[in-house]
Amino acid sequence: MIRLLHVISDSNIGGAGIYVQSLTRALDPDQFKVFVTCPPGSRLAGLIEKPVQLAELPGLVAEQSFSLQAVFSLLRFIKENDIDIVHTHASLSGRLAARMAGAKIVYTRHTPVAVYPENSLQWRIQRRVNLWLCDQAVAVSGFIARQLDEQGFPRERINLIYNGVDTERYAVSPDTSMLREKYGLKQEFIAVVVARLEEVKGHKHLLTALSSLDLSEFNIKLFMVGDGSQKESLQILVKELGLENVVYFTGSVTDVRPFLALADVLVLPSLEEALGLVLLEAMAMARPCIASRAGGIPEVVRDGENGILVKARDSDGLASALVTLYQNRELAATMGQAGRQTVKDNFSLHLMAEQMSKLYKDLSGHK
Fold first, then answer.
1. 93 and 198: one domain?
2. What is the 3-state secondary structure (H, E, C) of the chain?
3. In terms of residue numbers, what domain contains 311?
4. Which of 78, 157, 261, 299 could cross-link to 101 by cystine, CB 3.0-4.6 Å?
5. Does pLDDT of 196 surpass 70?
6. What is the average pLDDT across 172-191?
7. Section 5-12 average pLDDT
């Protein structure tokens, strides 16, 4: 049996947290003894299910990749639990501790990376660190795989393994009556964006798009699900644009399914994106998607087939896409069904877990 440790420093539940929760649940417990470490108080802790063993480890600091205390705390944990493989998610502390303990290191890159000019000082330093502190890297999209290659990772260590979602978990839509009652919804066309409230997610361009429409003609409501440093500035922008009765800020949620069930369309206007896990979640629930042609998004959203792609920062394009789906509900439904098929064929949790299991076995020497 392979003893596997996932190290994550997230305090909130974002794409990496959902990835860890889903993958650890999907691995065969007869083949893997799985541990997860996260910072004390992390919201992820409430989502990890037995038989996965959770440790809220002192020394792990929320949203902080490195600290000496975390290194030695993790080193002790790895040795005490005889860990074979440490799988890290933006945790330099985890990679250092694993190397010091003699464990194998898997590193998943969930976000776009800084790529320096080849053979520059920064590129050489980055390459040396990655060579030393990573046995195998997992790229969640072809876009990220290319970035890792440009960053100096040996190609033989880069594994393209797409994010996956549990298609059965998203097959049944939750009851939305409580949400509809809470927000006083009737027959509105509901757009939902699920993303951290940060500039890179492009919320302001979506708000500008919405404000350009005649909302007496287009009965649209927008739900912004998530939290972040831009919340206050976005709330101010909503007031400036006169959208107070149109836009709802929900804050962070532990389960996005009720909001996806509420949605007529999922919008992801990111300026850059590794892949966009929420796109897969929405598609698994047969919701059409409007998204930026940025990063790995076009690997998921096929323009005109399962959604609509627009240029990043293109408010006019976002407005046009909203109008298209608003005026053609049959097209929206067709795109939604095509999206669900896309996920079942190419982005299922079963496929991701199968590919990750093989990677772990090959790395550890277990067959």
1. no
2. CEEEEEEECCCCCCHHHHHHHHHHHHCCCCCEEEEEEECCCCHHHHHCCCCCEEEECCCCCCCCCCCHHHHHHHHHHHHHCCCCEEEEECCHHHHHHHHHHCCEEEEEECCCCCCCCCCCHHHHHHHHHHHHCCCEEEECCHHHHHHHHHCCCCHHHEEECCCCECCCCCCCCCCCHHHHHHHCCCCCEEEEEECCCCHHHCHHHHHHHHHCCCCCCCCEEEEEEECCCCHHHHHHHHHHCCCCCCEEEEECCCCCHHHHHHCCEEEECCCCCCCCHHHHHHHHCCCCEEEECCCCHHHCCCECCCEEEECCCCHHHHHHHHHHHHHCHHHHHHHHHHHHHHHHHHCEHHHHHHHHHHHHHHHHCCC
3. 177-346
4. 78
5. yes
6. 95
7. 91
